[in-house]
């Protein structure tokens, strides 16, 4: 049914289309997000794409004040830190992503276990366009 190769390029192309896609091992059923072309559990290469709903909860997080260059371009710095978190999705897979809509200057206000939903960010234009997976609190 799905003919796109399992790699980062396809994963980003799905993100551009607002789809969060992981892979499931045909042999043992292990699920991966971002997608893996080979199962790290049973080492078999037969993987299928599966769409992940995008709802989950915050497992852990960190607030980053010394921003990577791509984040500096978006205006993040010591005075405007950003939050990165590990999100456990309802399907059981865990993914590291940017957490939006939280106060990274006051991390004590960010709660472990808070419900989140996916928010795909579209950055850049033309050939520099890219989609970034983020999550934000369910209001
Ligand atoms: Zn497997």
Description:
It is a single chain. The chain has 139 residues and is mostly beta strands. It has 2 helices and 8 strands; from the N terminus they run H-E-E-E-E-H-E-E-E-E. It has helices spanning 8-16, 69-72; strands at residues 21-25, 31-32, 47-51, 55-64, 82-89, 94-99, 115-123, 130-137. It is globular. The model has no long low-confidence stretch (mean pLDDT 94). Zinc ion binds at residues 25, 27-28, 30, 39, 41-42, 44.
Identify the notable features of this structure and list them briefly:
139 residues, mainly beta, 5-stranded mixed beta barrel, 3-stranded antiparallel sheet, globular, binds zinc ion
Which percent range describes the beta-strand content?
35-45%
Class computed from helices, strands and strand pairing: mainly beta
Radius of gyration: 16 Å
Small molecules held by this entry: zinc ion
Largest sheet: 5 strands, mixed, barrel
Number of helices: 2
Low-confidence stretches: none
Shape: globular
Tally of strands: 8
Helix content: under 10%
Whole-number mean pLDDT: 94
- CA-CA gap between termini: 35 Å
Going across the major beta sheet, what is the strand order?
4-5-6-8-7
Element-by-element helix/strand order = HEEEEHEEEE
């Amino acid at each position: 049914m799905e003919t796109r190769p399992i790699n980062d390029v396809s994963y980003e192309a799905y993100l551009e289309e607002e789809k969060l896609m992981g892979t499931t091992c045909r042999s043992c059923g292990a699920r991966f997000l971002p997608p893996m072309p080979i199962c790290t559990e049973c080492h078999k290469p037969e993987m299928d794409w599966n769409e992940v709903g995008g709802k989950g909860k915050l497992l852990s997080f960190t607030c980053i004040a010394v921003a990577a260059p791509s984040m500096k371009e978006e205006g993040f710095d010591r005075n405007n830190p950003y939050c990165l978190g590990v999100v456990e999705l309802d399907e059981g897979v865990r993914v590291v992503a940017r957490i939006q809509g939280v106060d990274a200057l006051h991390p004590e206000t960010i709660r472990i276990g808070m419900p989140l939903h996916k928010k795909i960010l579209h950055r850049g234009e033309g050939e520099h366009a890219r989609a970034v997976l983020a999550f934000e609190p369910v209001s």
